[in-house]
Amino acid sequence: MQARVITVSDKSVEWGRTAYERLASLSLRVELDDSNDKLGAKIRDAQLAKIPYTLVVGDKEADGKGVSPRVHGETKAADLGFMTLDAFIEKLTAEAKAPF
Questions:
Q1: Which residues are CB-neighbours of 41 under 8 A, at least 6 positions away?
Q2: Is the dihedral of CA 18, 43, 47, 65 positive or negative?
């Protein structure tokens, strides 16, 4: 799994599903967590599952058609902040193409 899209509230579920579908359509390995669990629990679950990117989707992200990625195993500085979905897709595809 490369990324998990997690929604903050019921208001952001629609954009979360759209972002998930767009990433999945590009053959990226992605999951969607639109459950009613609290945000902290969703983030913790993604960290425990060792998913490289947790994409937080709330009202701000839905309005801006973007995501707020968090990198697994990093400190608070690994919260990359808001970026458009297109910018995140470019970042993820570039990483996938990069040699080890």
A1: none
A2: positive
Instruction: Give residue-wise pLDDT tens across range 76-93.
Output: 548 889 999 999 999 888
**Beta strand pairing call for 66-71 and 53-57:** antiparallel
**What are the two backbone dihedrals, phi and then psi, of residue 81, each rounded to the nearest 5 degrees?**
75, -175
Does the pTM exceed 0.85?
yes
Q: In 3-state terms, what secondary structure has residue 60?
A: helix
Burial readout 59-73 (b: 16 or more C-beta within 10 A, e: otherwise): eebbeeebbbbbebe
Please report the sign of the dihedral spanned by the C-alpha atoms of residue 14, residue 97, residue 100, residue 77: negative
